[in-house]
Amino acid sequence: MEVTARAPGKIILCGEHAVVHGSTAVAASIDLYTQVFLHISTTHSESDDGLLRLHLKDMGFEFSWPTGRIKEVLPEAGNPLSSSPRSCSPESIKAIANLVEEQNIPEAKIGLVAGISAFIWLYTSIHGSKPARAVITSTLPLGSGLGSSASFCVSLATAFLAVSDAVSLDLSHQGWLSFKEQEIDLVNKWAYEGEKIIHGKPSGIDNTVSTFGNMILFKSGKLTLMKSSMPLKMLITNTKVGRNTKALVAGVSERTLRHPDAMNAVFTAVDSISKELSSIIQSPVSDEISLTEKEGKLEELMEMNQGLLQCMGVSHVAIETVLRTTLKYKLASKLTGAGGGGCVLTLLPSLLSRTVIDKVIAELESCGFQCLIAEIGGKGAEVCFDNSS
Ligand SMILES: Nc1ncnc2c1ncn2[C@@H]1O[C@H](COP(=O)(O)OP(=O)(O)O)[C@@H](O)[C@H]1O
Ligand SMILES: C[C@@](O)(CCOP(=O)(O)O)CC(=O)O
Ligand SMILES: [Mg+2]
């Protein structure tokens, strides 16, 4: 049986890191995706090779594990339960680490270990030790703050569940298909378990916005879908400075332990900024003047959020260069995602001319950065059975 699944990346408009500590945050999906093609053996008569295969196509890596070996080291593989998401135990983490280590991943690509481990955990928990082949492609930059880890986990969970007993889908449907409400919740829960393997202590905002798409307000594991009443155009600048979300999240937690009162005040301020930002985005726009006023307020809130992210210790010289450059054109920016490098968001007000946009992009790219303007707030996770999309 074959299925293709895809899940979008995201931008965080306000509240990254603070959301891990219970503050409100606002995020939106973007039109960059991780895509999984899955071929799974459904009967023993099929000519399977007794292997679980993972092909990371963009990177040119192919990994495989004999299913007998998986069964030997991972107890979960003997008892898969697709309908009840569960956490990877420390023993299973160790067993999976051994399975990944056997693949001799080059030192320069060691960051992939976390993603491959999440793949093994999600697959074996949902399908046990059935032979299968998964081919992954992605238009998202990895480790840049655009939620590649969540989009990877959501697309895997979507593909694995689509061909499981937990979900019933119309296999004859042509083109992309979304899951029903309860089933999509299951995708989100499994994806969160994968994110935990990659991030350590994720808030759940990234997997939630990748699963459900749109724009969301998120606090303490709960989402509220938002309806934007204004056009929102964001320039995304990738500083191309590599970083790791797990380490940055841990760094903020350590700072919080050292300075609990000060950091809690920072998180409370972020909470207020996110709430104000979401109410501005959702309040009706009567005319051009009110749109310009709203954009001005958003810019101010983005700058305030950036200042607080600096207080958390997650900015970076490359991020500061982007802030300084865009400010020359009177444009406001903030980092998005975990920071420490990665991507920066710049609000492009509706009256800003194409000439100015081109100039800012040219100047940012002359610093070695990469710019893109993504569509915001599209669909979340989807599957396709006809293989022609
Ligand atoms: N397409 C992919 N294939 C394999 N692993 C992936 C893929 N996308 C993401 N990952 C995993 O997620 C990690 C990056 O996640 P993270 O540090 O949270 O940054 P971000 O989520 O902002 O891209 C990668 O190092 C890798 O382990
Ligand atoms: C920093 C954080 O708020 C977002 C991390 O996003 P990303 O992995 O950098 O795309 C962590 C989280 O919410 O789990
Ligand atoms: Mg991530």
Automatic annotation (TrEMBL):
Catalytic activity: (R)-mevalonate + ATP = (R)-5-phosphomevalonate + ADP + H(+)
Compartments in which it is found: Cytoplasm
GO BP: isopentenyl diphosphate biosynthetic process, mevalonate pathway; sterol biosynthetic process
Keyword entries, A-Z: ATP-binding, Cytoplasm, Kinase, Lipid biosynthesis, Lipid metabolism, Magnesium, Metal-binding, Nucleotide-binding, Steroid biosynthesis, Steroid metabolism, Sterol biosynthesis, Sterol metabolism, Transferase
Family membership: Belongs to the GHMP kinase family. Mevalonate kinase subfamily.
Keyword match Chaperone: no
Pathway: Isoprenoid biosynthesis; isopentenyl diphosphate biosynthesis via mevalonate pathway; isopentenyl diphosphate from (R)-mevalonate: step 1/3
Name assigned to this protein: Mevalonate kinase
A GO CC term attached to the entry: cytosol
EC number: 2.7.1.36
Pfam hit, one: GHMP_kinases_C
Group of enzyme by EC: transferase
MF terms in GO: ATP binding; metal ion binding; mevalonate kinase activity
Keyword Lipid biosynthesis among record annotations: yes
Coiled-coil parts of chain: none
The GHMP kinase C-terminal domain, residue ranges: 297-350
